[in-house]
Design brief:
The structure is a single chain. This protein is mainly alpha-helical. It has a domain of 105 residues. It has 24 helices and 5 strands. Strands 3-5-4 form a 3-stranded mixed sheet, with helices on both faces. It has a two-stranded antiparallel ribbon with strand order 1-2.
């Protein structure tokens, strides 16, 4: 069955609640472990059905946010999901307190119980209304950004469609496109600021109702941070500041020199080479064909996985009007099928997105039979290891996409991996400040971003772009609105992925084997144990960042700027 044929139906909240009550009763009244286990299996089957419908709606809504049917359905789900969460948390409590728990613990991953304990810490019927509002404002942000239509070069374009012009080798074109892009954010600044203010206040209210001082602690529980704390994150941010920021500063200085510029402005940052950035030489359909060949050559299992994605049409890759921004991977657990969503725009990020989201999708495919289905996906910082590492493990095939630009792609991709780390910790640091001070005005939030930006990204030059000089970059980062505290995860995973890159460069024969092993593990272990299982060093470990940076620097220094012109 192809994606377009997967049936969707509106979730009837009364029927769903009745189903949950019936299962709850069976769990409570189970006379032996066998009947308890059967009720637990029934719960898993029903949750898979429910979440498959949620995912189908999300994908079809984000493919075209103008489609009234799925827009209404998404609004319905935004409203009922918190109501059903009450039932799910209640059932989890029954399982956690059951006399049969010890027997169940012998059969399923410990992360299941950890996650349910964390769910208890961030839910109460008292916050259902706030959870509904949080969903509504998140959807409002997504729809507003997706609705952007910017008149540029004689045509209305989405934000994603402006990006190739922002990377043009013609500097005046870049400047014009960058100003048009940020002009949209300036135009809607008040509305974006109000949406975010509502989200911060709603999240703070939820946290206070649950007995927390502010949202941060609750946010960590919601992110299922099983084995590290905000103090660990704070120490790690300091390491990035001390170890990585000087490296990125030298990379930006090298970029400015290579481009022959007097200064590196906001509209220059996305261009690495005078002759222009590396671009894929194919359209989306051809790129998928090349990717299929690539995954078949990489390994039998990755080949089988990508063939499945192609056969079942489980990808929507091209940018179009009304389509939500960004890229993501989700799954339809009833069908054991992942799905890749992207916005291709004929830049190198098309290939990066295809390999990144395919890393997520391969993991979901490899671990699709894990029971219970709650443990198919790992926590986010672990999930990003699979996606970011796949970007590096596919390096030998980049020549098929980039042809004569391949060496330029390697340099750009590797240097971007390093340049990303300070930005990633900036996004995290900003959110810690914002939720510690929910009373901040929009202007104060802008000021806070700019102050932190000067710490982590000291090279930034926002001359002539007022909204950025005032501290407005964060308004384009959808995670800040929709997934609070989900960002440091990318940087932790990047440090792990760079270790896979290093092992692949050294032709370590166990590299792919270890990668596949952790994909198969899915969400059955917490972050630090997954890192250990992959034979990697934890990013929190002293010396890990330093060692990783040195290896990458050596690789980048081995490529001369003359080769890159």
């Amino acid at each position: 069955m192809k994606f377009s044929e997967y049936p969707y139906h509106t979730i009837d909240v009364k029927q769903a609640k009745d189903k949950f009550r019936k299962i709850e009763s069976q769990l409570v009244n189970a006379e032996d472990y066998a009947s308890f286990k059967q009720a637990f299996k029934d719960l898993d089957v029903y949750k898979k059905e429910l979440y498959t419908q949620f995912s189908l709606c999300e994908v079809r809504h984000t493919i075209d946010t103008r489609d009234e049917y799925y827009k209404k359905e998404q609004e319905h789900i935004d409203e009922i999901a918190p109501i059903l969460q009450e039932d799910l948390v209640r059932i989890s409590n029954v399982i956690l307190e059951s006399p049969y728990r010890k027997e169940l613990e012998k059969e399923i991953p410990s992360t299941y119980f950890l996650a349910k304990e964390f769910d208890k810490k961030c839910f109460s019927p008292d916050i259902i209304e706030e959870l509904q509002k949080e969903n509504q404002y998140s959807s409002q942000y997504q729809q507003l950004v997706a609705s952007a239509q910017i008149e540029f070069e004689g045509k209305k374009r989405t934000l994603s469609e402006l990006e190739p012009f922002m990377k043009a080798s013609d500097r005046s074109m870049r400047k014009k496109a960058t100003k048009a892009y940020w002009g949209w954010f300036e135009k809607y600044e008040e509305e974006l600021g109000e949406i975010f203010d509502s989200l911060v206040k709603i999240r703070t209210t939820m946290a206070q109702k649950l007995g927390y001082k502010d949202y941060t602690e609750m946010g960590y529980y919601r992110m299922y941070r099983f084995d590290y704390t905000k103090e660990d994150v704070q120490t790690y941010r300091k390491q990035v500041l001390d170890t990585v920021v000087p490296v990125t500063a030298s990379l930006f200085a090298r970029q400015q020199k290579r481009l022959g510029l007097d200064a590196l402005y906001a509209w220059d940052e996305k261009v690495e080479f005078q002759s222009g950035n590396p671009t894929p030489k194919q359209d989306a359909r051809t790129m998928v064909k090349i990717a299929l060949h690539m995954y078949q050559e990489l390994d039998k299992d990755t080949g089988e996985f990508f063939q499945f994605m192609v056969d079942h049409k489980l990808m929507d890759l091209e940018s179009k009007p009304g389509k939500a921004a960004g890229g993501y991977c989700t799954s339809f657990d009833v069908y054991g099928a992942p799905f890749i969503f992207a916005n291709f725009n004929q830049t190198s990020s098309d290939v990066e997105t295809l390999t990144h989201e395919a890393g997520h999708a391969y993991q979901a495919y490899a671990s699709r039979d894990i029971f219970p289905s709650d443990c198919i996906w790992p926590t986010s910082e672990s999930a990003e290891i699979h996606s970011m590492s796949m970007e590096f493990l596919t390096y030998p095939w980049m020549k098929d996409f980039f042809k004569e630009d391949t060496r330029k792609f390697y340099f750009q991709h590797l240097s971007d991996a390093i340049k990303f780390l300070p930005y990633g910790v900036l996004v995290d640091h900003f959110q810690h400040e914002i939720y510690a001070h929910p009373e901040y005005t929009h202007a104060k939030r802008m000021e806070t971003w700019r102050k932190l930006e000067k710490m982590y990204l000291p090279h930034k030059n926002y001359d002539e772009i007022d909204v950025l000089e005032r501290g407005g970059w964060w308004m384009r980062q959808l995670h800040i609105f929709m997934d609070p505290f989900y960002y440091i995860d990318y940087t932790l995973a990047q440090v792990c992925a760079l270790q896979f890159w290093s092992r692949a460069q050294k032709k370590d024969p166990s590299t792919l084997k270890d990668y596949k092993k952790i994909c198969k593990l899915g969400g059955s272990l917490p972050f630090r144990q997954i890192v250990q299982a992959a034979n990697l060093k934890s990013p929190f470990e002293e010396g890990c960042l330093d060692e990783t940076m040195k290896e990458v620097q050596n690789a980048l220094n081995a490529i001369t700027d003359e080769e890159l012109q």
